[in-house]
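Batch manifest, entry 17 of 40.
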Amino acid sequence: MTRHVAVLYGGISAEREVSLSSGRQCIAALREAGFEVTPIEVGQDLGAVIHALTHPRPDVVFNALHGRFGEDGCIQGVLDWLGLPYTHSGLRASALAMDKAAAKAVFREAGLPVAEHRLVTREELEAADPLPLPYVVKPVNEGSSVGVHIVQKGDNRRAEIARDWRYGDHAMAEAYIPGRELTVGVMGDRALAVTDIIADAGAFYDYESKYAAGGSRHVLPAQIDAGTYAQALDIALRAHHALGCRGASRADLRYDEANDRLVLLEVNTQPGLTPTSLLPEQAAHCGIPFPALCAWMVQEARCGA
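Output type: structure tokens
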């Protein structure tokens, strides 16, 4: 029986602070659920992390890392090598979901609705608009809306965005989908609920809106018609399975009301577990308290893909 759980949190990505907050929440919840918990704050020294994971070896690793090296398959590969069961998705699904271009190819092949998009170099972005205005520029391998910009008609920031780009050699340009920001949490074979996110602090659901107290309002369940609600649940579950996810995930969508269409933006294989996060809120809406959610994740933990 699983008794000893090591929680990985922190990390070295742009989402370190989010992960620290998630980790603290999970550590407390797992202890409340009756587990022996060893917190492991992850930094630059991978050797120290491996030593902490093997002296002593836990029964399960709770992965509360976010961003690069935490949800892109890197730490999953280390844990597979060590033979330690871990929460959330395996290496392949994690790598696919984190790579927005690869994920969109999978979604399109599965018949899921995605926005027009293309990869561009910094030089291409600086030289010309890669798509008709308005469009979104985002990193290929980041989460939590880190580095996301919306380029509107009359906006002269494109060249500046390109010159200041620090998220790799390429950026993803994606057609801007007007309308509402929706999200759907998935637990295994169950899509939980649809949340309508209203960003109060800015023009879109950016990093500040996601994690600052009062940065956004969550309407749960989303006030949309029953058919659209059911379709959003279906898209999220199909995306989860198309990528090969396990455990919990969260799909982000846009609902273009004017044209009555849903568009899948991305799937997060390591949904936030902070005090303002959406997955725990949806689980609670479905009658699953946070300690029970974390305990379920531990029960679903395993090695491999």
